Amino acid sequence: MCDAIVDAARKRARGRPVSGVRVRVGGHPVDPEVIDQGFRLAAEGTEIEGARIDLVMEPLAVHCRDCGGTTPVGSAAALAACPVCGGVDVEARGRDDVVLESITVAAPPDGAHATAGPAGDGERPEHGPEHEPVHGPAREPEGERGSA
Fold this sequence. Notes:
The chain is an alpha+beta fold. It has helices at 2-13, 32-43, and strands at 18-26, 52-58, 60-64, 70-73, 90-93, 98-105, 124-126, 132-133. The chain has a domain at 2-59 and 96-133: hypothetical protein PF0899 fold, CATH 3.30.2320.50. It contains 2 helices and 8 strands; from the N terminus they run αβαβββββββ. Helix 1 (2-13) crosses helix 2 (32-43).
């Protein structure tokens, strides 16, 4: 997963140095520290090296047709029965994907023109034309295929 995140960020960066990556993880029970370490290892030697990763975690939820409740759950195994009433007439809700939401392009060297980000730090977040799925093989966003 970390290799796919780095690959997708590199495609979006187009050779520019990156200081931050924002990734939404839906439904995957992941340890943020493990993802951070894997991301750092996968980014070594690339323009992404040294970038911070910001994970936005979206847990899966179970919706019970018996009691009508919807409850966030920590794992897919917990989707077998309602954690409130024990009913088994349940459905999973939520996304089960990993999406590169944005990258932050590092400030250019002194003397070059920069667009300040919200913090006025000379960095600016960049969003692709669509949020980019990175679960499995990284894909280029529509409109960027074939560009070098």
